[in-house]
Amino acid sequence: MSFRVRIAIAGAGVSGFATLGYLVKSLRTVSSAEVTIYWLQPPRKIQTKNLSLSQRDRLTQIEDMGLDPNQLLGSGQVYHPAAPSLFTFNGDSAARGFNFVADRYDTTDYFEWIQANRNLLADLYPDFAPEKGQQRHPDHTLDDIQGTTPRGAYGLYLHDQFLALKAQLPKHITLQVIPEALQRFEQKEQIVTLKTRTHQLSVDYLAKATGPSFARLRDEWAGRVFNAYPCDRYGHNLPPQVTVVGAGAAGIEVALHLLHNLSIEQVTLVSHRAQSRLPQTEPTETYECQWFTRENMHLQPTARNAQTLLKKELEACYQACHLSYPGWDALLNIADYPSFLEDYLETTNQSPNHPFAHLVRPVMSFYTQVKDLLPQVDQIGVLHLINQVKPLFATQSRPCAELMLAAIAAG
Fold first, then answer.
1. Of the residues 81, 201, 240, 264, which has the maximum number of CB atoms within 10 A of its CB?
2. What is the mean pLDDT of the chain?
3. Residue 230, preceding bond cis, omega within 30 degrees?
């Protein structure tokens, strides 16, 4: 017996493409279903007057390839090829594969795509190609999976994977791309009605994948305050001194773009939390938790006990790593973050067997492990505990951490 399914996806960035891919994968063998997928994405009007010469050249090359930079699917704002090539992306820790045709979701698939398109990418992003002699950082290279690659290159990879997926759609799945934004929607009983500028659609399911909400900018800030993405909304008309709110990867990348491409004299980075994520390391030795375990929580299932156990575990792990334990209060309230980050980089450069590296998985999965043991009030308490220590375990690429330290030192 056949049946009909209508699905709409609003947003054609990474989340939207991932949703599309997993839907196609799940419904590929359900040949009794007549599936229609509507993918909503308004075209991007790129403000070329705000782009650097290298960015304009890159857009011209992309157009020469037969691609419309205003309507690339899969890249979204953050990974759009119009982004400055200094907007680096760590290939090892974050750039997962989205090869739905080959059923591969590992970083290696992305890296192999880079190598298969190496000559093209070297022309598009010469500061990531060593042979071009334009590298700004030794880890900015197309040849090292442990290093960094341009965000725009990842966006082109995602668009390539979309084209491959579209070419391999089974007959019972129809994909219709609507180049318009979702304006509003409402649900009545089992039907969702959605409205775009020229369309009104009735679907069974709506997946809203329009990305994170940026801060709302006040009207009186026009021309002086911008969101980081899309980067073509601001250009050479900026003042000589600029403040960037956010000192993580995006903040650093925006600062580099301002300094190198837009000739801004001084950039001040202001962190939301007065600290940056620590670089990712993989320990080479094993470590088994002695205190911070489900078994010990079972004996006393309270948030207070979770904190006691974590304190003991940290001290034990520091001892096992032959490092001096700074104490609980010192870890939660870091007085001198640049010195703390510099010490961490130096320590992990000598040995990846650091307490934070050993405990990242036990700590970040702890709430899920013990949730069923806890009364509701203690569930909230354990979540608060994990959020307190989360900055010690949230990781980024090592080059990004080094750039953060350099930015602090320069600042």
1. 81
2. 85
3. yes
